[in-house]
Amino acid sequence: MERKNRIVVFGGSGYIGKHLVKASISLGHPTIVYTRPLTSQTLPSKTQLYKDFTSMGVTLIQGELEYEQILEVIKEADIVISALAYPQVMDQLKIIDAIKVAGNIKRFVPSGFGAEEERTKPLPPFEVLLEKKMKIRREIEAAGIPYTSINGNCFAAYFVNYLLRPYEDVKDIVVYGNGEAKAVLNYEEDIAMFTVKAANDPRTLNKVLICRPPKNIISQNELISLWEQKCGHTFTKTFLLEEELVKQSESLPPPHNIPVSILHSVFARGDLMKFEIGEDELEASQLYPDYNYTSIDELLHIFRVHPLPPPPYAAFE
Ligand SMILES: NC(=O)c1ccc[n+]([C@@H]2O[C@H](COP(=O)([O-])OP(=O)(O)OC[C@H]3O[C@@H](n4cnc5c(N)ncnc54)[C@H](OP(=O)(O)O)[C@@H]3O)[C@@H](O)[C@H]2O)c1
């Protein structure tokens, strides 16, 4: 029987990282999580997550984001998936250097998972984020490292929690822009499954995988109306218009200017759906037609039955 690729995940304890680790294990890959050393300050939730990982068969390797230590762990893997947090995006240069020297890595998936950095021209505070991710892509290409970039669009549970606040009894929902622009909301588990499948797929070599499944393209007004049907009552909408978002992105100090710039791009302007998928890009649900991804309707049903706790909104705090 062919040996399954060994996958090392950086940032595997993180918001999207833990879904990637679970997806890797569920698809039968020997999986390593490279994580910062546990200390007495480590949160009990993280210690518990590591116990869960270990019982699932994950190998935990503790170390810092330092070149020599990264090189050692990379030598033990075939595929590297990075889900490092946004502030650590440039630390991926050390991963790139280590992959170059190790010479054994068949595929590198850098930390991206959001808007397609080459195809979006948002307001400056968000643009700075995307430019760093683009710089990493250019470095990977220059190093000749086999890669796949994952454009997950919006993490669905993350944004449904942010927009609709299903975990509390709300009467009022804020709409960014006029609510008509189309966005794409993908369930985190599905983004993770698409990522691990793509990392092993010869068709995605040196390509961008865009997760744009038809059932997950939705405007904010449509999302609210679907949620109203599930809840059996209507909400008052407060519109935060595009000009107001632009003003806030100019007047708020960093990092508070970042969330409004993301909301402006995704929901007011509809940047995620403003471009056609190009020749060097692939669409995930077309590439994996047998994969039963979660539609927005199913996701809202999950939220209705078991409201998920809101995540810490790293970019939104
Ligand atoms: N599309 C979307 O809707 C969306 C939403 C949010 C984020 N994103 C993107 O998804 C990617 C991952 O974001 P995330 O929110 O999942 O990340 P996260 O949970 O904030 O953090 C991921 C991991 O990064 C590592 N990390 C954090 N701080 C660090 C530090 N100071 N030094 C070294 N390592 C550190 C940690 O791993 P260890 O503790 O194991 O070392 C952490 O678990 C980013 O590229 C982000 O921009 C996309």
Automatic annotation (TrEMBL):
Domain NmrA-like residues, every copy: 4-299
GO biological process, one term: lignan biosynthetic process
KW Cell division (keyword) present: no
Annotated GO MF terms: oxidoreductase activity
Origin: domain of life: Eukaryota
Entries under InterPro entries matching the protein: NAD(P)-bd_dom_sf, NmrA-like, NmrA-type/Isoflavone_red_sf, PCBER-like
Keyword vocabulary terms for this entry: NADP, Oxidoreductase
Keyword check for Ubl conjugation: no
SUPFAM superfamilies for this protein: NAD(P)-binding Rossmann-fold domains
Protein name: NmrA-like domain-containing protein
